Every structure is written in structure tokens, then in C-alpha cells.
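Summarise this fold before class:
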Amino acid sequence: MSILVSDVSKRYGAQPALSQVSFSIRKGEIVGFLGPNGAGKSTMMKIITGYLPPASGQVSVCGFDIATDGLASRRKIGYLPEHNPLYTDMYVREYLAFIAELYGLNRVRQRVEEMIDTVGLTQEAHKKIEELSKGYRQRVGLAQAMIHDPEVLILDEPTSGLDPNQLAEIRDLIVRIGQEKTVMLSTHIMQEVEAICSRTIIINKGQVVADRPTTELRTFGAGDSYELNVEFSGPVNQAQLLQLTGVLHVRATGTHGWTIEVSNAHDIRPELGRLAAERSLNILALARSEHRLEAVFKELTNSRQNPARG
């Protein structure tokens, strides 16, 4: 396992931040680590990277225990904190060379140029960091996190505050990085998780409430029914749709479109086909609505139900 967390707890005075948190992340996974503000995300990430000690429990990175092999484990990690701490009065190449020397790397100049090319900083590399946009500063942060070629990347809110173009560029960069590294990232942007994360861990009030593949998590808590969106080539009567087996509710969506809520026990697609044929119509579109990750997140972090670990 690239990351193994076992029964980790942490308190700040009388306030519990984490309570017996356990999960593991395999090599090559891009895992979204989600939770509302104050849920314990940053605390967990700081414990994994060795910046904070846990009150109890155990964490290992690439087989190295962070408590007994702290230096070895940190060499395996690249970390981009939420508030990207950069020396803004330094030039991009100067800063990256400084970081490379701190790690004791050989071929510093070559490694700096490799990172500049990898994160797309070539056109900005001659500037001081203070002259860069936030998107390019995030690229510098990613470059410093990767310059020692770690096996694991911990990214805390890597796209926070970026405009849509910058967000898309950093998202694409993380996907490319994830082809070779293990990536754990926290974010409040659900579309980002759906786009790039193969798995999602949700934490609430210091406890893991969900740990599943992202595609499976969309169906969590969907209830006893599902929705079908259908569009006919001509008019269909609402009463006819309500008579179909298992239909609970119908609402119009456009001139000849309908959203139909159906009991999970029934598949009404054959009946829709027969209805269309009887009225000499075509079905122009037919799709089942996905349960959005944002809705699942709200359900899990606003309820008191038992944890839903995968």
C-alpha cells in the first residue's frame, strides 16, 4: 500500500479532530478526500506527511512508519498545502533549484528544467514568483512537491481560487501526474472529483462516513426510486405515463420531454417503447439520471447515519 492509516485519532485540547480513522490507498490511485470545513481533512493530511503527530493510531507511507521511519516516509511524499507557501521574491528557477538542493538532488539544473516542462511553466520560468498568476503559482507548488520524484502526492485544495481555465489546466495536470504517482487530494469542487478521482473518501466530524469508487458513490443513498428522462417525437399524455407499472411521479421537461420517477423494482423502458409505438411516435432520448456526488456529499455530511465504508 502507498498509504495505510489505522485507527488514527487526534485532539486539539478538548476538541476531537479525528476519531479512529482508517483507510488505505493503493499505488496508482487518485483519491478524493472530501469533507465539510472542520471535518479533519487538513489534520489527516498533515499527519500523513509528518507535520503533525497522531494522538493514537498508526500511519505508514510506502511501507515506512511515519513515527519510527519519519525521514524515509517523508522522502516518499510530495506535499502541496492548502495555502501554497512560496518565497515570492525568488525567481521560478531559483526557487526550484533551492528546493532541489534542500533534497540533496544531483543534476539540479536538469531536474529543475524537467519540472518546469512537466507542469507547463516554460513561458513563465524567467519571472519572479510574485509576478505570477495564482494558477501559475499552483504550478510552481506542484513542481516543488514533485521535484524529488516522490511516489505519493498529497494535495490540499490544489485548485482553490482558480478561474475556470486555470482549474481545467491544473486538473489535466493532476490526471497526467496520477498516471505515475499515487495522488490524494482534498477539494470542495465535486465536479473535479467526478472528473479525475477513481475513488472518494468522505470524512465528517473526524470520522470516515464513506469510502467507495467514485462511480459507485453516485448511487449511494439514491433511495427506493430512480429517474428516467425521456423525449418523444410528439405529444404524450401525462395520465398515460402515470399508468405505467411502477411510475411514482411525472413532470414535463420541454415540449415533448418528461422526467419520470420510477420504483427501483421496475424497468419501464419496454412499456415506454410500446406506448410510443401505439401513438406512432419515436423516442428521441432516453437516459437514467445519475445521483450527483454533490447530493450524496450533502446527505452523508448532514445526517447521523452509520458510516458507509466500502
About this structure: The longest strand covers residues 15-25.
